[in-house]
Amino acid sequence: MWEFWIDRGGTFTDVVARAPGGGLKVLKFLSENPGQYADAAVHGIRTALDLGPGDAIPPGAIGAVKMGTTVATNALLERKGERVLLLITQGFADLLRIGNQTRPRLFDLHIRRPELLYERVAEVPGRLDGAGAEIAPLDEAAVAVALAEAHAAGIRAVAVALMHGYLNPVHEARVGALARAAGFAQVSLSHECSRLIRLVGRGDTTVADAYLSPILRRYVDQVAGALDLGRGTGRLFFMQSSGGLTDAARFQGRDAILSGPAGGIVGMVKTGLAAGFDRLIGFDMGGTSTDVSHYAGAYERTFETEVAGVRMRAPMMDIHTVAAGGGSRAPTPARRRIGRAGR
Question: Coil, helix or strand for 28?
Fold first, then answer.
């Protein structure tokens, strides 16, 4: 059967196809070309199989499709995710705005607050203590009102982050059930996204998951539907930010931030080791972003990081992402400063 490895970037999509006989095909397409095809990855697969526009993919022709994608990365960089409602414990509505008070540029005179991913926030009455025991019951009526107002405003994604929810998820689970009953398509719960102590990190990760998962799910469903996976055409896998593959059905926004760049690191390491090098610096310039990494005998991973101004707490490759790829342009004043510095 055919096997495919695909890197779906923001500008170009690269496809490596291995035929049943072992021969390789390497193809490259624009990631966005609506006049020619709906999706570059699917178009690459169909091109490798020599299928016409109306031809169906033969059952059993494909063994596996393994993809890395920057769909979530670019949505984060360009702030094109889903509209999100944040539900958080009463009294903590501004917690994620305040953050953890880290000051990476201590002497900046012009301080710019990070842009928040959620559109609106509502407080949830009800409280658990530090051991996870209930000390104030959940006010389901207040939750229902907040959900109804957000739904009426057109919001369809909700992030739920409650105090001590990592110890006892009973309140979060109930709020999630109410949100699904109210018609929210995406419900992200902090005890599922990042079941660890500290509400700020848990809340940030949950909001990012709610913001990105709908965008990601639409893309995954589009690819899976076009490949007609129910007819024996193999399995679809996606690269996670941690550098491991997961089944398409389990691919979530919180795991996809560095999907494409993580695949680049794995490829860099395999290529370097094959050439006899085990100390490597990765510089991956795409059309949208540039990703810098380091390898010295072991994959470097982190569990708390910041990507495009968004704090995340999830296992991922240690990658520094700059929103300045080959397609980026500096404004005129910046170019003049660069020119003067060069002279």
Answer: strand
Helix (H, G, I), strand (E, B), or coil: what is residue 118? coil
Taking the C-alpha atoms of residue 280 and residue 259, their distance in angstroms, rounded to an integer, is 20
For residue 4, give Cα distances in angstroms to 22, 153, 171, 221.
12, 42, 43, 18
* The residue type at 309: G
Q: Which residues of the chain have pLDDT under 50?
A: 338, 340-343
Question: What pLDDT sits at residue 18?
Answer: 96
- The whole-number pLDDT of residue 327 equals 59
pLDDT tens, residue by residue, 267-306 = 999 999 999 999 999 998 877 678 899 999 999 988 888 7
Residues 99, 200: Cα–Cα separation, whole Å: 6
CB of 190 closer than 8 Å to CB of 172: yes
Q: What mean pLDDT value characterizes the chain? A: 88
Reported in sequence order, the residue ranges of the chain that DSSP labels E, i.e. its strands, are 2-8, 12-18, 24-30, 62-69, 84-89, 120-124, 127-128, 134-136, 157-161, 186-189, 235-239, 245-247, 279-285, 290-296, 301-302, 305-307, 310-312, 316-317, 320-322
Query: In which order are the strands placed within the sheet that holds 320-322?
Result: 279-285, 290-296, 320-322
Pair 89, 123: CB distance under 8 Å? yes
Say how far apart CA 217 and CA 224 lie, in whole Å. 10
Specify the pLDDT at position 342. 46
